[in-house]
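Hi everyone,

Forwarding the result from last night's run.
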Amino acid sequence: MIEITRTRDVPGSPEDVAATVADLERWPEWFALHKGWSGPIPTSAAVGVEFKHKVRVLGLPGDVQWKVKELQPPQRFVLEGKGPSRSKMGVDFRVTPRDGGSTVAFTATIGGLALKPVEGKLKPWIEERADRTLDGLEKVLSEG
């Protein structure tokens, strides 16, 4: 299992950040792993809510079935996902206040037997997507 964490100071209160992160309809604006919906677009996040979206990992398309595992606004938002070939994914957003804004810690995990042969390529790929995700989130929050 590959796990990476990135931290970024962003504009906006923890409540604003948490509201943006948990607003699943807005994911296409900033979540770098999101490539489209594979079913009904969820309107709100709540523990137990499940939804599917399209991803492209190392150029290969697939669908991820996500489930909201934890939602503690404004501090934490955790999802667990099941992807193609029994792969597993997870995202964990932790938000803390700081002067003039918030700090977001974003942890992404991905793994599974089918991904073992490409783990060497997968780690830098997921690191780049984590950076792009936080870039997108920062931009969305800056635009208000």
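The domain at 2-143 is CATH 3.30.530.20 (Alpha-D-Glucose-1,6-Bisphosphate; Chain A, domain 4).

Cheers,
N.
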